[in-house]
Amino acid sequence: MTIRVLLADDQALLRSAFRVLVDSEPDMEVVGEASDGAEAARLAAEQRADVVLMDIRMPGTDGLAATRMISADPSLAHVRVVILTTFEVDDYVVQSLRAGASGFLGKGSEPDELLSAIRVAAGGEALLSPAATKGLIARFLAQEGTGDGAERDPARAERLESLTVREREVLVQVAGGLSNDEIAERLEVSPLTVKTHVNRAMAKLGARDRAQLVVIAYETGLVRPRVE
Predict the structure, then answer these.
(1) What is the pLDDT of residue 147?
(2) Can you give the pTM of this predicted structure?
(3) Which residues form a coiled coil (predicted)?
(4) CA 216 to chain centre
């Protein structure tokens, strides 16, 4: 299958560079370009995009609002948003993950990293460097001084109670940035079993993907932020 990619960035030069890179790959193609978030949300539906490379800061409707629009549309449940940012540590990135983005990537990343992120996001697995995503979320949640996240999000905290002991254990490992294979080795089960637990946890908690599972683990207080 060909991965259908939508580019959302207000800088035409960057979009052109990304288009050349993406279209050079045999398993993916650029199906549209947007210069603002509202256009990105519209084109995601019209062009049946699989992955949206979303700039966080755009005039008009920004990437954060666009991500919320895409995540809120049931017909776009298959669309994965990868936030592109000039700032590796950015408050908006965390908000985007909460809004439904699959992860983030710095604009200064190597071409291979960008292409890998597209493939991983399209596959619904943990986005490039889950440990980095986890670390970013931990830092900001700690800075916010949320204390017990369950007080902030009682609905999700209540849903957390629906997890089995094993699902909760797997969720803690996911929040630690571990892959399915690494979790399987640590818990002495098969990777398929881990994947099943992850999928069930996502369904019960209303998470689109692993990135949101990490956010939920911190917001509910299941995992505590630690700042270096």
Answers:
(1) 44
(2) 0.73
(3) none
(4) 12
